[in-house]
Design a protein that fits this description.
Elements lengths: L13 H7 L3 H29 L10 H35 L8 H20 L27 H29 L12 H33 L12 H35 L6 H14 L15 H13 L1 H15 L8 H24 L1 H7 L3 H31 L5 H28 L15 H29 L40 H7 L14 E3 L5 H17 L6 E3 L2 E2 H22 L5 E3 L1 H7 L5
Length: 630
């Protein structure tokens, strides 16, 4: 029964529950489903690219389609697959690790998901409306301008990423506020789990990096839709300006992606070595230093532009410096495992596989940081191999590790270990087959972004190996999907701490967690809070508050409709010149765009005027969830 000062909320079920939820755990699952879908789309695009390149002078796809495929593969994987799957883990885990009942702004959390989803859908609609973006995932000017790209492909890129970027920016701000304000009593910053620390630094990077992308996309949108001259040299613009704006965002973005993966590896290696993480303080400061230096290296993507020897030297030194805090992390993971009682679960296999793979990506990164050498490597397959070793060999292996590790906490079911090991070995071997040989293709002179190549250049065998490896990675992904499907039919009977060596607060509550996470906020008495309690002979956490009613936020459909409004507005304004007149010379496209904006602003007004008190979960319901134990 609800208290008099709160209204009773009708709990939705089925589809409506998922459309209206503001529960961070359900939003995490939504991010996982959407990000997983886009991961499959991006993976299919990669397979098609590799089929085209498996032999010389192949004509499996046309040159135009190939350009669309490489553009959409890169854009989809970075913005629509990697980011949301990381947000899935962040949503599922961070509030639990800090002892919070939800994120700081649950409504904004929901809005962030729906704007990301509709931005991603808008981008992929381009495949069905006459052509996807084809200017490369970096969308360099003047190639992305109307002179060379008069179709709507790049418009979809600009507007889709602007809408999806709103979601990422909202999410970053939300996690900053959550981690600063909502930690359990006793959880100082230097007692936070490493995963929470990496999410904290990542959120700060999002806050500073994404506005640069938003500015660049807005300028490109003005160039394309309203004939502005930001990047058009004939009108006084500057094409190199786009490169600076993009990479001032783009290089911190690499660390936005990889830092949460570092956090995952720190948690997994520590748990399955049955040891405290070696050098916790140095790991924290290395994470902060990586975030700081990440903003000082963007022009290493531009060594061949002609910035001059001084600029090249400064950015070269800064790029090499960033290897130091990364190296600290590598050695700390190795020292954590040293002398540990290591269990090679699937999660730990991915974590251990991550370490040498990421080192290889880092070593080629230092090679590329030498500006004179970069003149040789630049725009060759060596660079393709390097960033895939970082993003796939680092980030994707980290994501797989995190999903296998926290899956029982998220869903109350253990993934099948045998299928998990099949996933690891096929994906891991396939990955190295695909990208290791590409270093040598690059050194032999095979350029990036080419549609086909001549026979007799020495590229044939290595391209064939690369394509076979890509199919193996595809099989690894299929094994993971099979694992999810077969696991879904198991009963939800996983204990709170299924690995038996859980160290942090998420392993102190049921799997999956109840709506309110913690019946009583825990009192944290040290780093690795749960492990410390176990070492002191306690079976659980000491509560920091008496048992009582818990206040929770109400569900809302408004974020969903705000995403719909932005989607409609983008389509309307994009097609305004082509769609017919509505009355007089007023274009129908502008009317559609205005309707979309009206939907958005109406939802914003409704959110402002409707006084949402949330609702209480009563003690008897909490006791029932706890099995009658006070």
């Amino acid at each position: 029964m609800a208290h008099a000062h709160t209204h009773t909320v009708k709990r939705h079920s089925g589809l409506m529950d998922w459309l209206t939820t503001v529960d961070h755990k359900k939003i995490g699952i939504l991010y996982l489903i959407a990000g997983g879908f886009f991961f499959l789309v991006g993976g299919l695009e990669a397979i098609l690219i590799r089929v085209q390149l498996w032999k010389p002078l192949n004509d499996f796809v046309s040159a135009d389609t190939y350009n669309e495929l490489i553009t959409m593969h890169g854009t989809t994987m970075i913005f629509l697959a990697a980011m949301p799957i990381l947000f899935a883990l962040m949503n599922a885990v961070v509030p639990l690790q800090i002892g919070a009942r939800d994120v700081a702004f649950p409504f904004l959390n929901s809005l962030g998901f729906w704007t990301f989803l509709f931005g991603g859908v808008l981008l992929n609609v381009s495949w069905f409306t006459g052509g996807a973006p084809d200017a490369g995932w970096t969308s360099y000017a003047p190639l992305a301008g109307t002179t060379y790209n008069g179709q709507h492909g790049v418009d979809y890129y600009v507007l889709g990423l602007q809408i999806a970027g709103i979601g990422t920016l909202i999410g970053g701000i939300n996690f900053l506020a959550t981690i600063i304000n909502m930690r359990a009593p006793g959880m100082t910053f230097m007692r936070m789990p490493l995963f929470t620390w990496t999410v904290f630094v990542t959120s700060a990077l999002i806050l500073f990096a994404f506005p640069a992308l938003a500015v660049g996309l807005a300028a490109l949108m003005f160039d394309r839709l309203f004939d502005a001259n930001f990047f058009d040299p004939s009108g006084g613009g500057n094409t190199v300006l786009w490169e600076h704006i993009f990479w001032i965002f783009g290089h911190p973005e690499v660390y936005i992606l990889i830092l949460p993966a570092f956090g995952v590896i720190s948690e997994v290696v520590s748990t399955f070595s049955r040891k405290r993480l070696f050098g916790y303080s140095s790991m924290v400061f290395a994470t902060i230093l990586i975030g700081f230096l990440g903003f000082m290296v963007w022009a290493h993507h531009m060594f061949t532009v002609g910035l001059g020897p001084v600029a090249n030297a400064l950015f070269s030194i800064a790029t090499m410096l960033i290897a130091i805090p990364t190296g600290i992390k590598i050695f700390n993971w190795l020292f954590t495992m040293w002398g540990g009682s290591i269990k090679f679960t699937t999660a730990n296999l991915f974590a251990v596989g991550f370490i040498p793979t990421f080192v290889m990506g880092g070593v080629t990164g230092v090679m590329l940081a030498a500006a004179p050498a970069d003149f040789q490597y630049h725009d060759s397959y060596f660079v393709v191999a390097h960033f895939h070793y970082v993003i796939v060999g680092g980030l994707v292996l980290g994501i797989f590790s995190g999903l296998h590790y926290w899956w029982p906490k998220m869903f109350g079911r253990m993934l099948n270990e045998t299928l998990g090991k099949w996933t690891f070995w096929t994906f891991f071997i396939g990955f190295h087959m695909t990208f290791f040989v590409q270093h040598f293709l690059g050194l032999l002179g095979m350029p990036r972004r080419i549609w086909t190549y001549l026979d007799g250049l020495g590229f044939n065998e290595m391209n064939m190996i690369s394509t076979v490896g890509a199919f193996l990675m595809g099989f690894g992904t299929i094994f993971f999907l099979l694992n999810i499907v077969t696991t879904a039919f198991k009963p939800q009977n996983v204990p709170a701490d299924p690995w038996e060596d859980g160290r942090t607060l998420e392993w102190t509550i049921p799997s999956p967690p109840p709506e309110y996470n913690f019946a009583q906020t825990p009192l944290v008495r040290g780093y690795d809070a749960y492990w410390k309690e176990k070492m002191d002979g306690h079976s659980g956490m000491t509560p920091a508050e008496p048992l009582g009613p818990i206040h929770m936020p109400s569900p809302s459909i408004l974020p969903f409709f705000m995403g719909v409004g932005l989607f409609i507005a983008a389509l309307g304004f994009m097609y305004a010149p082509e769609w017919g007149n509505l009355f007089g010379s007023f274009k129908m496209g502008y009317a559609v765009g205005i309707v979309g904006l009206l939907v958005l602003f109406t939802c914003m007004v409704l959110r402002s005027v409707i006084d949402d008190h949330g609702f209480h979960i009563e003690e008897d319901e909490i006791l029932k969830d706890m099995g009658g134990k006070a």
